[in-house]
C-alpha cells in the first residue's frame, strides 16, 4: 500500500515557452509505493511535466519538494542526486554491452590491486551484482552476459526499468518516472513490464507513468491524473473512475473535477 509521506510534490507549476503556456498551475503528488498514471492528449503537457520532474526543464513558476524538502532541479543530475530516476522512451541502453554492464553503468566495480588502479573492471563482480539485483526485483529475463542488442523489445524495457529501479531504491528516496513504458510492445511483453512496475511499488518506490495506454493505467495505477492544455483537470483514485470518464477529461467533453483547476495568476 502507498505510504502517507509524499515522495515528490509539485505545487503551482507553470512553464512558458515564449507566449505559449505549456503548464499552468499544476499541482502533483506521488507517495512512496504509489503508482500514478499521467494521461492527456498530444500537447496536453504530460511530457513537459515529466521533464520538469526529471530536471530537464526548470519551471517558470511553482515549487518542487522531495520527501518534504524544497529542491531546485537545474538538471537531470540534480534530479538523480535527489533520488529521481527517469526512463526515457529510447531507454538509453548501450546496445553493444551486455545486461550486466548496462545495469551497473556508472557504478562499475573495478578489480582489486594494481589492475583496479588502472581502472580495469571486475566483470565477474558486475555479473554477480546484476544477477542479484534482477533476482531481488523478481525479474526473469535474458542471461546477464547477453548483449542488449540481442534482446527483445520487452527484455530491453525490463533492463532499463530495472536499472533505474535499482538506482532509485539505492538512493533511499526512490521516485521513478516512466515515459510510455509499453509503447511498441506486444501483449506478453506489456504484461511483463506491468508486473515489474507493480513489484517496484512494493519496494516503496514512487512511480509516475506517462502513457496513452488506458488499459495499463487501470491495471497498475493507484491514481490517475489527467492534463488538458497544460492544466490538471482530474486527479482521482483509479477505483473511483472509469474508462469513459477518463476519456471525457482527456478530450475535454467532460467538465474538470470541481476545484481541481487553479485560478490563473
TrEMBL record:
InterPro entries: AAA+_ATPase, ABC_carbohydrate_import_ATPase, ABC_transporter-like_ATP-bd, ABC_transporter-like_CS, P-loop_NTPase
Keyword check for Repeat: no
Protein name (record): ABC-type sugar transport system ATPase subunit
PANTHER family cross-referenced by the UniProt entry: CARBOHYDRATE TRANSPORT ATP-BINDING PROTEIN MG119-RELATED, SUGAR ABC TRANSPORTER ATP-BINDING PROTEIN
Keyword list, A-Z: ATP-binding, Nucleotide-binding, Sugar transport, Transport
Keyword presence, Ribonucleoprotein: no
Family matches, as CDD domains: ABC_Carb_Monos_I (cd03216)
Pfam families membership: ABC_tran (PF00005)
ABC transporter domain segment(s): 8-254
